[in-house]
Amino acid sequence: MASSPFFPLLLSLFSLFVRLTSAAYSIGVNYGTVADNLPPPSQVAAFLKSQTSINRVKIFDANQDILRAFAGTGIALTISVANGDIPTLSKLPAAQSWVAINILPFYPNTLINYIAVGNEILATSDKILIAHMLPAMKALHSALRLANISDIKVSTPHSLGILSASEPPSNGRFRRGYDRVIFAPILEFHRRTKTPFMVNPYPFFGFRPATLDFALFKPNAGVFDNVTGMHYTNMFDAQLDAVYSAMKKLGYEDVDIVVAETGWPSAGDPNQPGVSLENAISYNRNLVKLVNSGIGTPLMPNRTFETYVFALFNENLKPSASERNYGLFKPDLTPVYDVGILLNQPSMGPTSPNAQASEPSDVGRKWCVPKTDVSDEALQKNIDYVCSSGVECGPIESGGACYNPNTVRSHASYAMNAYFQSAGRHDFNCDFNNTALLTATDPSYETCSYPFDEEKLTEKSAAMTCRMIGAVALTCFAVVGVAVFY
Fold first, then answer.
1. What is the SS3 string spanning the chain?
2. What is the pTM of this model?
3. Mean pLDDT for each 10-residue chunk of the chain (486 residues)?
4. Which residues are known catalytic residues?
5. 28-329 has which CATH code?
6. Domain ranges of the chain
């Protein structure tokens, strides 16, 4: 029997779907230790290996306890040189001594993939550190080669303060006076050694009230770059493309880029703009989706950027409230929220600081509804979160079976329960910043049926996820019942 002319296309698309949906998350995390209540490194390493899909960790020193703890885990480490050590390490003998103390006793049992020489040196405006940064990178690279180590790469992370212009992205350029003198030689080093240029893009520091949705990957009008004709739907892409444009102006657009830090705080000072648990979830969850989609950016299509979220833990000794609340996990290893990196667990909805993980609530039927004393403002936030996270909210839209009564409380009740059911019916999926509770009484009424069937909800959520990812520049269509990205 002759094969259909469409069969090769369908097979190709199905293979693409399998590859994209089965790919493990390639997200790293920054493991900061400015705290006095963190678990021991051995426990952290065991937790990351057994309970998460994180396979890369960046630390801000060369802590030997951490290096020992990650031995044999297969998790790759980026270790860092302290800023103050840079001038000394610009000489080869000192660099060789540093490698002998901080690399050789642990390598290769501990997988080390990068040495980060300082952190955001240009932002310090320290002329001595700036002058010695590249010589230290070269000396450490030579020291590694003399020790017969060829798979550890040397780089240094930069803040986006290195750019004098970034809007629109095509206008990205390095600071005048630093472009040819500082960055051209650094980029030449990266090209010669096949090492990446590290940057720390933080849309959190770049948004204005009018661009908050743009920073959070939420639906927005976007930004159009008249020079390139490119349309940007999120600030992360725009910031990376501004860096790329600056590199291209110097002739180094072929050098790889690694995102050494990016994140969003889940709490901060009262009334601090943009800081909330919901915004942290929106930013980091959509960041993970975007980075692992493989679609790249408008100016760098089909590139996957090795990306390290800041941070692993909430660190209680940081100086400000927001700095203390960048963590994905609390010190007891329970999640502040889940961006999709936990193994064998559904993604979490917004949780309060006191919410704890629990087993699925599948002993008897349960529904998630608002507490009686919660304001409409808080409930509207819950609706906005749920309906932007991939859960089907059609029934509470105009004409839907649950639209009437047309009140915030009624709509929130349906939406919050839909999230709870689709996320796996764990108790922590019905918290919503302490605005919800579980009930054994079915809230369905008249023609409005509150969902309980988890299988059907999961199917709906999968379809909605496809559309939600579309909000960050992916497109989906259906082929013989399979959602495929293109």
1. CCCCCCHHHHHHHHHHHHHHHHCCCCEEEEECCCCCCCCCHHHHHHHHHHHECCCEEEECCCCHHHHHHCCCCCCEEEEEECHHHHHHHCCHHHHHHHHHHHCCCCCCCCCEEEEEECCCHHHHCCHHHHHHHHHHHHHHHHHHHHCCCCCCEEECEEEHHHEEECCCHHHCEECCCCHHHHHHHHHHHHHHHCCCEEEECCHHHCCCHHHHHHHCCCCCCCEEECCCCEEECCHHHHHHHHHHHHHHHCCCCCCCEEEEEECCCCCCCCCCCCCCHHHHHHHHHHHHHHHHHCCECCCCECCCCCEEEECCECCCCCCCCCHHHCCCECCCCCECCCCCCECCCCCCCCCCCCCCCCCECCCCCCEEEECCCCCHHHHHHHHHHHHHCCCCCHHHCCCCCCCCCCCHHHHHHHHHHHHHHHCCCEHHHCCCCCCEEEECCCCCECCECCCCCHHHHHHHHHHHHHHHHHCCCCCEEEECCEEEEC
2. 0.70
3. 41 37 64 96 94 95 97 97 98 98 97 97 96 98 98 98 95 94 98 98 95 94 94 96 98 98 95 93 92 91 94 96 96 89 60 40 69 85 86 90 87 90 81 83 80 49 36 34 29
4. 120, 261
5. 3.20.20.80
6. 28-329, 367-462
Q: Are 467 and 401 in contact (CB under 8 A)?
A: no
